[in-house]
Amino acid sequence: MKKMLLFLIFITNISFSQNKNFTIEDKLIFWKLVYEDSTNISELKNNPRLEFITDSTGYIKKTNFNDKKVRQLIAEFKVQSKKGKYRVSVCNIKFFTEPIGINSGMFSTQTISEYTIEESLIKKNGTIRESYLGYNLTEALNPHFTELFTIKKRIKSDW
Question: Would you say which domain of life the source belongs to (predicted)?
Fold first, then answer.
């Protein structure tokens, strides 16, 4: 019985923890990760989900990563490189909700609602809300961001 109780406490603590790659700086939530890869970061420009503005900054195009648990989002990113590694920082993450149509007889309007990650995750005391009803947004987004900025080796083709 003691083992079962300890197991339940351990599982509860894991489900309510935030992902360590998400931090707060100047009241903004950032996702940061350092990749140990010596490939030139210009290879990231081949990713169709990324729109580069300069050689190291740009936007994540509107996507939900084909994940029904994640709303469509856009974000800004910055890539910095050093010898043998590169660091990615993602900020200004904005989510989009489904359009709501309002019809009141004579006229109808449709609203497109968007909100920032800060509006949904920062508590009044300035920390990140770990979980909302068992759903942890930082844990849901982390694997998608990690995969998005992983440089894939391109296979050369004769085409």
Answer: Bacteria
